Amino acid sequence: MQAQFLAGGGLDGYRAADTAARMSNHGTQMCRVALTAGADVYAKAGAMVAYDGFLQYEPVSQTFRRALGEWASGERNPLLRWMGDGALYLADAGADVLNLHLAGESLSVNGTHLLAMDATLSCSVEKVRGAALLAGTGLYNVTASGTGWVSVTSRGVPVVLDCAEAETYVDPDALVAWTTGLEVRTRRTVKVGSLVGRGSGEALQLGFRGTGFVVVQPSEDTADRLKIRG
Predict the structure, then answer these.
(1) Taking a C-beta distance cutoff of 8 angstroms, is the pair 42, 79 a contact?
(2) What does the pLDDT average to over 69-79?
(3) Pfam families under this entry (predicted)?
(4) Stretch 208-213: mean pLDDT, rounded?
């Protein structure tokens, strides 16, 4: 009866796909994580919207918290460790979700855009300094390294740009993540407003060059940048 209702009621197309992939999309705005015993995942606190199977979670360990520093201390603690056998569904206020597999690589993610990462990945948090900080990319970036999955969020469908094909310039407020090892520099241009009498000064872009990619969202996420600085 239940199966007939799902099929006849037009709901069958919304059922979760039966996939063995570690991290996969359900639609564009939800991440499904397949968990098995011993294969834990770190996920943003508050991001769980559903789960099935036998799952449990706990705050990150003191050792891991010390590694993450201020970004993961006290009320700023943004991650929970999920474990067990089942499927975990994650979302973040309707943002689009992009799941990336690292194969011995490192990815630098703006802290506000990290949704989940395999617990097998090494992780560090660094204050953004130099050119990136001057350009306003946010105070903390999370670097995940090794082999495993990382899930990031984007305010709108993101684009992934290959910096090996050409030097790539990005509005810092639209920058989600980039592979480490890229050469990063700033570029200053005249603000459009200064040309029509409604403002003055310069605009900054971040330039990326080398072997790797950047993830860019179709939104200038200035509100989230202010939150992470607060």
Answers:
(1) yes
(2) 63
(3) AIM24
(4) 93
List the structure tokens of 129. 């300094």
Q: Which helix (H) or strand (E) holds 59?
A: strand 48-59
Range with top average pLDDT, 29-43, 127-141, 174-188: 29-43
Task: Return the residue matching tokens 């206020």.
Answer: 93
Question: In sequence order, what are the beta bridge partners of 187?
Answer: 205
Q: Own/partner pairs for 18-23, CB < 8 Å, 24+ apart?
A: 22/118, 22/148, 22/149, 23/99, 23/116, 23/149, 23/151
pLDDT band at 120 (very low <50, low <70, confident <90, very high): very high
CATH architecture for the domain at 15-229: 4-Layer Sandwich (3.60)
pTM: 0.81
Residue the block writes with tokens 């040309």: 195
- Say how many residues make up the chain: 230
Q: Report d(CA 230, CA 223) in Å as an integer.
A: 11
- 81-96 residue pLDDT tens: 999 999 999 999 999 9
Going through 91-191 in order, the beta strands assigned E by DSSP cover: 96-110, 114-118, 122-127, 140-154, 159-162, 168-170, 175-179, 183-190
The residue whose two tokens read 């993610």 is 109
